[in-house]
Amino acid sequence: MKHIRAISVALVAIAMLMLGVPATPAQADGAASTRNIILLGGAAATYLIVQHNRKVHEQQAENAQRQAAAEEQSNDSSSAYQQAEHAYQEEVAVNAELQKEIAYQNKELSIHDDGGPGNGATVSYGWGNV
Predict the structure, then answer these.
(1) Is residue 30 one of the residues assigned to a domain?
(2) Range of the domain at 50
(3) What residues contact 35, with CB distance under 8 A and at least 6 apart?
(4) CB 82 within 8 A of CB 90
(5) Average pLDDT for 10-24
(6) Which of 45, 68, 109, 125 has an alpha carbon 20 to 30 Å from 4's alpha carbon atom?
(7) What is the reported pTM?
């Protein structure tokens, strides 16, 4: 793309220099008119190339910006998932400790109830048999 831009800048410079060259008096054969038409056509082509390159660069910049935003959103989603996974693992660990505590309390209650283990009523706190 740098080559195309350099070429278009060179064409603009040449066209501007050609416009500054003093024109010879008009000939009856139309050479000056032909030269002016060619110069005008070259200047118009150069202008179109420059405008096309500008539009292409704008589109590339917009695409790059969209891609960067998508990557940022993806990174944010990945980070949020990892944090949720970590919080879930912490919650699982807390629940396991609570289950151990409840099992210990159930065991203690059954020991002190009717004088021995297994003689008393089993108390359930919703964890099932642990």
Answers:
(1) yes
(2) 2-88
(3) 23
(4) no
(5) 70
(6) 68
(7) 0.39
